[in-house]
Each structure stands twice: as structure tokens, then as C-alpha cells.
Amino acid sequence: MGSDSDVKSPKPSSGIPDREAILAFIRDAKGEVGTREIARAFGLKNADRAALRRLLRELADDGTIAKRGRRLHEAHALPPTVIADVTARDADGEFIAAPTEWDEAVSGPAPKIRIVLPRYPKPGTAAGVGDRALLRVERIEDEEDGVGWRGRVIKVLDRNKGRVLGIFRALPDGGGRLVPIDKKQADRELAIAPDDAGEAKDGDLISVELRRARAFGPPRARVKERLGSLKTERAVSLIAIHAHDIPLTFSDAALHEAEAAKPSTLKGREDWRSLPLVTIDPPDAKDHDDAVHAEADPDPANKGGFIVHVAIADVGFYVRPGTALDREALKRGNSVYFPDRVVPMLPERISNDLCSLIPGAPRGALAVRMVLDAQGRKRSHSFHRVLMRSAAKLHYAQVQAAVDGRPDDATAPLLDPILRPLYAAYACAKQAREDREPLDLDLPERKILLRPDGTVDRVVVPERLEAHRLIEEFMILANVAAAETLEKAGLPFIYRVHDEPGVEKVHNLFDFLRTLDIGFAKGGALRPAQFNRVLALVRGRDVEPLVNEVVLRAQAQAEYASENYGHFGLNLRRYAHFTSPIRRYADLIVHRALIRAVRLGDGALPEDATTESLGEIAAQISLTERRAMKAERETADRLIAHHLADRIGATFSARISGVTRAGLFVRLDDTGADGLIPIRSLGTEYFQYDEARHALVGTRSGAMHRLGDAVEVRLVEAAPVAGALRFELLANAAGRRGTATRPDRTGRGKAGPPAKDRKPKGGKGGKKAASHRKAAKGKGGPRARTSKR
After folding, report:
1. Distance between CA atoms of residues 581 and 293, nearest Å
2. Within 598-735, where are the H helices?
3. In angstroms, what CA-CA distances link 774 with 681, 709, 767?
4. 564 and 69 Cβ atoms separated by less than 8 Å
């Protein structure tokens, strides 16, 4: 019998294989490779496995191999499917690509991929320079011109439109200037001649193409397209929508399918209309796609246990595989939420009507019935296709107030029959969650509230209530149940996965915590509980925000995948998104797989769906999720920059949220606005970047500005269109020696060379240090970039 990794096993030996043999086995494996597969392939007994694990840890520590969940691979190798950017053509005219996400600090230079063109390419697979594409790749045995991989385009994800976006500011002569929307280009305006302005009006969001540069004067551009006016109420989010190519309108075919859809009936469904399920959402929610119910388990064998029902809108009934609605949903990947609007994954006829669990209206749902014991452990579960009728539409604060003894007219009659059983079931589930010990970071989220005209009214931090935690925990239980059912059925589906932190990040965290005299065990398997113990040690101390931020940065990014490597943050072995198919395509795939697994009728996952094909979808929707997050964050930055633009010179309390060689990033306490303090404005001395301590340290005074420090800052400049703010440091409240620094007469500070370029103990330090001393003597120190991130 062959090994699980689908590679011919080496001849078993009595000793531990050497490094080269292990690397060859990992390199040639097509399937999952972990300690178990290597031990089986080399015929290692239990007594040898501890030595094998030590050898694998050494290979990981020195960067030779990397680990993704339980899967090992060469640190510089690529997965079979990768998202890449087409960067150039080689001498033969073939396209060369590089992976979009690649950590050069850990794995070295990004590998080059030569794109192989099929004789008859499929529509949507012809990529060009500047495009981003999903590739299937394989290693080339004989590397040529530094190209070690070949790839085939599965799908082009993002076309290079060769455009620059910005706001048109009209000039009296009929021409104008372009104010860039990119933070990195906030101080680089483009000139637009009258003949190149087209129909652009002052305040329009426009797309331009660059003209040939002149010897003198600013760069020039020509207007290609008017995208909308910033004078409208919902203009700020429009910038991010166009900047990230987020689809804004649905095709006529998709809209026709949505309008033609009919409400669900009882045909092919169980009748749950008498079960008093309720929806609990934010007060401003427009769609209500999940409902919950709980009751004590009458089974005497489960004393103190509960039955929890979670019903989710049956989106799969309306959005069938291969339809226009399905194609539009996959293109979007997810809904995008801005303070002033939502760009939905599905048309409103589906998301806000037929699949919104409106009180009193019969609605189709895919539901799970879960039996919990008295300690909150799930004893059993089953999935059902049902027709339900929501008993009430409630919001979090309303529910919490009722349970705390302040019911209103809507919640008073629901308190004993519905709300108290929900909280009792949650009390059990909470025990199991605490026993599981998921990662417990305290990172409050801010919410921007707008006035009717679309401007910022205020920024609030919504209170985190037990009602929020109740819904969150029941949704997690439902997601786990979905993953378990599909694994048992042996069907392909899309997991929600979160890898454990990488070796390099753990080393950096260890070094940082050591500066605070906090211990962190690096050896053995990582568990969220190790991070929780660190967080508990600093709770209530001044360094709590700092440590929370650094622990967060040590974590990997969650994503979608068709292969499971667990969810580290939740400390779960298997996890899938099931609870929001209205706004996430991954959940729709899981619904289709469940319909097929439990034989629930129409809308099932197609028979030809494979782990490979779903892996391609998972990579694509992981990318759209990151696109949405970035667009939402940039829009919040622009709104707050507009809000603060008339407060130049005002002072604010803040915390240092980032430390780089360019300067300090700070986050204001009241609004959560982010901005830059350029290193040149910190004072008259050199500041050295201390990576281990996440700090800039003055080489003369020892003044230290560290991640998480409380500071007082003055707003110096605002660029609302780019969402960029620049500040000046007034005082550092951390109480460290020399931390209250002020700018010199010229406003310039001096950035010291990196630590590796400086010779310790007063030595001359060689050519690099000499060049820094020369620059300091003649020009006030190396100039740091002042552009915003």
C-alpha cells in the first residue's frame, strides 16, 4: 500500500533519514505530507519519531521548510494553485509572473513563473502584463533564466486598466489638476490641460492616463472616464468601489432571474413554522438571514442539556449552480459594507426580500438541530430543509436589556418562553468554549455614524454584550456541525481555515516579550492558550494594548481552502462557513454540499465538483474578501480625514499603532483615525529602529517611542481624498527617559541607520556608518519619506 502522500515510499531503514532525503520526499509529494507520512514512508518506529520531529523543527527554524497546518513543504516552494501577478515578458515573448503574496523576509526572493499558453485558450484565461490571475503551477526541473516554475492560467482575476484614479479640481482656464486617491501619492498631483479635461467637472471622480512627462512642471494626464461626483451623498465609498474594481451593478440576466423567483413553499420541506425562531441583529441591519431557538432537552439521559436550532436563509434554493445569479455572486465573492451603503453579493430581491427572515412571513431555510449536554458539548446534530416563520426581529441591545430586567413591549412576552432559554443554552455552550480556550484578543471595533448628508457625525465603540457572544457561539457551533457532516459524507467543500503563526513570527514575538520580562514557550505544538496566558498577564497594565497588538500581528490570516488545516484562532480541528450565504459565496458552496450530502432536494453541489475545482474558487474568494476589507478600511480613513480636515492645529490623545524606519503611525483615541508622524519631525538626534522592541530609540538621549505608547499629537496636514493624516508628536506619555521630544527649528529629525549598519561600543562602523555621519553633518540626517501609508 502506498503512502497518503501519493509518492513511492523510500526503502525503509533502521535509522533517521538525513535532511536531503526528507527534503526530496517533501518536494516530490503530491498530497498532504506531515510527520506521520514521513515516518511511515521511511519505516520509522515510535522510538524514532521524537528524533524525526526534532529534525523537522530544525529544518523549520532555519527556514528550509515551512508548515501550513499539518502540511510540510519547502519554504521557497509554491502550492499547486496560486494567485500571481503577470510582471513581464521574457526574451521569447512569454509572460512571466510572480506570486501575489510572498514573504521575502522568510522565504527569499519570489519565484518566477513562466506562463504556458494553451493552443486553444478558454475565454477569460488570456492574461497580459499587469493582470492578476489564478494559476496552476508545477516546478521546472531545469531552471532557465531564473524561472523555476511553469503555470497555466485558470482565470484572470483582475485586469490591468493602466489607469490612475483621482478627484478633478477645475482651474479657470478649463483645465485642472488631479488629486490622487492613493495615500502613497497624496502629495503628487497631476496637471490636466484644457484639451485633455473632456467633460470632467470640479469634484468628479475620474480615471486618467498619464501623458509623456515634460522636462519642467508637474506630470500631465488625460481624462479617460468620469466615474461619479464627490458632491453626491454617497461619494466617498464610490472612490474605493472604483479603485478596487468592486462590481457595482448586476447583469440584466441576473436581475431577471431574481425578479422571476417565487417565495418558498412547503414542498420538499419540513414544517417548522410553529417553532418560535427569532432573529437578533444590529438595529440598522437590512437583511436577516439567521434565526435561533433553544429549549431544554426533555431526554432524561441528557439532564441539564439543551436543544439549539439555527436556521439560515435557503439561498441555494434561489441561486443554482451555473446560473447568471451564481456567476454574479462568485464574481463578487462577498458583500462589501461601507458606512454609507452596502454593495451586496446578491440582488435585493434575493437578499432583502425572499431570503430575509421577516417576522410572520414563511421563509425557506436550511437548519441545524444540535443537542448540547450540560457542559455545552455537542452530543449530536442533524440538518433539515424547512419552512419557518420568524417570531420576532430583535436587536442585540434590546435583547440584553430584556434579560437584564428592562424588557420593552416587544421583548416582554418573549422573555420567558424564548429569551431565557437562549441564554441558558448559551451558558452551557460558554463552558465548552472556555474549556476549548480559543484565542482571546481584546480589540474593540469602532463604528462610524453618519449624518443625513453623508458626513461623519461621530465614531463610537459599540458595547460588547452577552447577546453578541450568544449569537456568535451558536453560529460557530452550526459551522462546526456543517464541516463535520460534510467530512463524514466524504464530499468536497470549502473550509474556513486559520493557520498557526509561522516560525519567524513566533521568534519575533518571543524576542519582543522578552523585552517586557514576559516568558513565552516556543517549543512544542502551538496552542491559543499560550497566547491567552500572555494576554492575561498584561490585563489591566499599561502595556495591555501594546501586547494585544503584537500578538495579533503574530497571527496568520484566515482564508478559504478546499483542504483542511484547522482553525487555530478558534482552536477547532474543522470549521466551515455556513451561516451567511446571502453575503458570502463560501457559505453558499457549503449549503449546496449539505443539500447533496443529506439529500435535501434541488440546488445541490454538482457531481463534477472536486477538491481541485473548489480550491480554485477558495483562492478567488479569499482574494475578494481581502479586497473588501481593504476597501472598507480605506473608506473609513477617507471619511474621518474629511471629518478632521478643518481641525488642523488641534491636539489629540493617541497611541502609537506602528513603528517603521519612516516614522511612527498613530491612532487617535476618540475617532480611531490613523496617521503618520514622519521620523524627520521627531527631534534633533538620530533615531534607530529597534525591531525587537517595536520602537524608535534616540541614539544620544535614549528617548524611546514604542508601539502601544500613549502620546499627545498635533494634526499638521490632512488629505481627505487619500484618507491621509500627518501629525506632529508633542509628548510621549509612556514615562520613558527622554520620550517627550520636540521638532528642531527646521522641523527635521534624523533617522539613524539600521542597527545592522552601526558598529557597537563607539567604533567607527565602516563605510555605511561613515556615510550616515557625513549625511548628518551636511544635510541634517537621511531624509525619511513623508508619504502616508
Report:
1. 20
2. 611-644
3. 20, 32, 10
4. yes
**Strands of the 695-698 sheet, one edge to the other:** 704-706, 695-698, 686-690, 750-751
CB 629 within 8 A of CB 239: no
Give CA–CA dist 538/545, Å, rounded.
Answer: 9
State mean pLDDT over 707-729: 91
Task: Give which of 246, 468, 462, 240 is closest to 340, Cα–Cα.
Answer: 240
Q: pLDDT averaged over the chain? A: 83
Torsion angle of C-alpha atoms 452, 454, 458, 462, degrees rounded to 10 = 90
136: which residues sit within 8 A by CB, 6+ positions away? 80, 81, 151, 152, 154
Q: In sequence order, what E strands does 90-146 have?
A: 95-99, 112-115, 132-144
Whether residue 211 contacts residue 221, with contact meaning beta carbons closer than 8 Å, is answered with yes
37-86 tens-digit pLDDT: 788 778 777 767 778 877 887 777 666 776 665 566 665 678 778 888 88
8 A C-beta contact, residue 578 and residue 363: no
The sign of the CA dihedral 123, 126, 132, 134 is: positive
Residue 25 pLDDT: 80
Q: Structure pTM? A: 0.77
Instruction: Report the alpha-carbon angle 133-138-144, nearest 5.
Output: 95
Q: How far apart are the first and last CA of the chain?
A: 55
Which letter, b or e, does each residue of 547-583 get, where b requires 16 or more Cβ atoms within 10 Å of its Cβ? bbbbbeebbbebbbbbbbbbbbbbbbebbbbbbbbbb
Phi, psi of 353, deg, nearest 5: -125, -85
CA distances from 231 to 236, 265, 452 (A): 9, 46, 14
- Which residues are paired to 656 by β-bridges? 666
Q: What is the rounded CA–CA span in Å between residue 367 and residue 481?
A: 11
Alpha carbon separation from 385 to 313, 494, 598 (Å, rounded):
10, 20, 10
Q: Which of 390, 619, 613, 383 is CA-nearest to residue 489?
A: 383
Q: Which residue has the higher pLDDT, 49 or 723?
A: 723
Among 254-258, 369-373, 738-742, where is mean pLDDT lowest?
738-742
> What are the CA-CA distances from residue 623 to residues 226, 245, 330, 667 (Å)?
27, 13, 12, 27
Mean pLDDT of 500-523: 83
Q: Rounded mean pLDDT of 578-589? A: 97
Instruction: Identify which of 547, 555, 556 has the alpha carbon closest to the alpha carbon of residue 694.
Output: 547
293 in Cβ contact with 277 (< 8 Å): yes
Q: What is the pLDDT of residue 779?
A: 34
- Cell numbers at 302, concatenated: 441528557
Rounded mean pLDDT, 621-633: 92
When mean pLDDT is compared across 11-25, 71-85, 457-471, 758-772, the lowest value belongs to 758-772
Q: For residue 256, what are the CA distances in angstroms to 251, 347, 363, 604?
A: 9, 10, 21, 22
Q: What secondary structure does DSSP assign to 178-224, as a single string?
A: EEES-GGGTT--EEE-GGG-TT--TTEEEEEEEPPPPSSSS-BEEEE
Angle at 316 between CA 600 and CA 257, to 5 degrees: 130
Coarse DSSP helix, strand, coil percentages of the chain, rounded to the nearest 5 percent: 30, 25, 40
Q: Summarize the confidence of residues 440-455 as an average pLDDT.
A: 84
3-state secondary structure of 444: coil
Question: DSSP secondary-structure letter at 541?
Answer: S
Which run of H or of E encompasses 58? helix 46-61
Q: What is the pLDDT of residues 7-41, one digit of tens each?
A: 444 544 446 788 778 877 877 665 567 777 788 77
pLDDT tens digits, 201-221: 888 888 888 776 665 667 888
C-alpha to C-alpha distance for 587 and 479, rounded to whole angstroms: 9
Q: What string of H, E and C letters represents the secondary structure of 280-331?
A: EECCCCCCCCEEEEEEECCCHHHCCCEEEEEEEECHHHCCCCCCHHHHHHHH
